[in-house]
């Protein structure tokens, strides 16, 4: 797989569709993919998406014997959860293209499956120095009092659309946004979120063999409401 992008559609509404589009097109450029008219493909894909119910469509670019092709998978949205338990991935980093969503999806799924055997819902990838990079299928954010913290920008990882939306909200609200490198142990007593297109904001309620996380009452609920307010109707089909 050359590239992929997924987003949640609920009753015809989606968060930051234009940013998902930009990320997918950027991934195609990074991969030197020769998909015919990818912008037109994305326009056509959006036109056929269901406007009722909950869906988690994925656009993909694949390299085959007859050249590069794009396709749309229209999938029902999996079950979504508000809380998650994390576990550090304890093996080598399996990512081959850490800044491109798609090529490593299966390897990252294996990381999450291994974490599930220990009772966790998400695996956390760590850098060689032990600092947090990202979750297998999520970005990791945390709070220092009233300041929001995200992983430093030069760390190789997927550019999270949900994280970008949260940071934009924080900036608009005048909230300090810190860009840090942190080890799991640095987050003891902090409120930690795992954020993704499918689940939105999930509060980390536990970290296996990791920090004891905390939560400020009402904060995650307020931010979910703010994030939901950014959802927009799909363009007319």
Structural notes for this entry:
With 237 residues, this protein is α+β, with helices and mostly antiparallel strands. It has 2 domains: 3-73, D-amino Acid Aminotransferase, Chain A, domain 1; 83-228, D-amino Acid Aminotransferase, Chain A, domain 2. Helices cover 25% and strands 30% of the residues. The protein contains 5 helices and 15 strands. Strands 9-8-7-14-13-10-11-12 form an 8-stranded mixed sheet. β10 and β11 (147-151) form a beta hairpin. The mean pLDDT is 98.
What strand order characterises the main sheet? 9-8-7-14-13-10-11-12
CATH topology of the largest domain: D-amino Acid Aminotransferase, Chain A, domain 2
**What's the main sheet like?**
8 strands, mixed
Order of helices and strands: EEEHHEEEEHEEEEHEEEHE
Mean pLDDT metric: 98
Number of strands: 15
Distinctive features:
237 residues, single chain, 2 domains, 5 helices, Aminotransferase-like, Aminotrans_IV, BCAT-like_C, D-amino Acid Aminotransferase, Chain A, domain 2, 15 strands, four-stranded antiparallel sheet
Task: Give a quick precis of the structure.
Pfam families: Aminotran_4. With 237 residues, the protein is α+β, with helices and mostly antiparallel strands. It has helices at 17-30, 38-47, 105-117, 161-172, 219-229, and strands spanning 3-6, 9-10, 13-14, 54-55, 58-64, 67-73, 83-88, 122-126, 132-135, 139-144, 147-151, 177-180, 192-196, 200-208, 232-233.
